[in-house]
Amino acid sequence: MILALELFVMLVLANGAPVVARRLFGHHWSAPVDGGRLWRDGRPLLGESKTWRGVVAGTLSCGLFAMAVGLGLFFGSLFGFMGLLGDMLSSFIKRRRGLAASARALWLDQVPEALLPMILAFFWLPVGLWQALAVVVLFTLSNIVFSPLLYRLGIRHQPH
C-alpha cells in the first residue's frame, strides 16, 4: 500500500513539477521539446507547451523523491521521464486530431502519462497488476477532479 502511494505521488510530481517550474522560471529554459517542428499534416509535432524545462523538472523531481523514499534516483528519474513521455504522446495524438494544446481530451490527457510509468513500475518493483491499474485509475480520476480547482486557484493555465 505504501509503495502504491509513493508511485501515485511520483505521478503527481511528474505532472506538477513542470507547472511549478513554469511559474518559478517564467520563459527561461522554455525551449519546446519538438523544436517548433511541424508534422507532415502541417500541425505542430507536440506544441510549445512541452518544454525541456518541464522534462527536466518532472524527471528530476521524481528522481529525488524516489531516492528519498528508497526507490533509487535512477528508477525515479526513469519513472518521471516515462510519465512525461506519456504526456508527450497525448499531445502528439491531440495535435493529429486537430485539438489545441488547451483542448480537453478526457482520459487522453491523463491515462498515458500514468500508464507508461506504471508499466515500468510493474516490471521493476513488486507491484501487482491490479495495484498498478488502481494507481493509474486513482491518478486519472484525481487529475480530472482536482485540475479545475488548480485552475481556479491560478496554478494551472487550463482547467484540465
UniProtKB/TrEMBL annotation:
Entry keyword 4Fe-4S: no
UniProt-listed InterPro entries: CarS
Keyword Glycosyltransferase found: no
TM region(s), chain numbering: 55-85, 106-124, 130-151
Source domain of life: Bacteria
UniProtKB keywords: Membrane, Transmembrane, Transmembrane helix
PANTHER family attached to this UniProt entry: CDP-ARCHAEOL SYNTHASE
Protein name: CDP-archaeol synthase
Organism: Marinobacter lipolyticus SM19
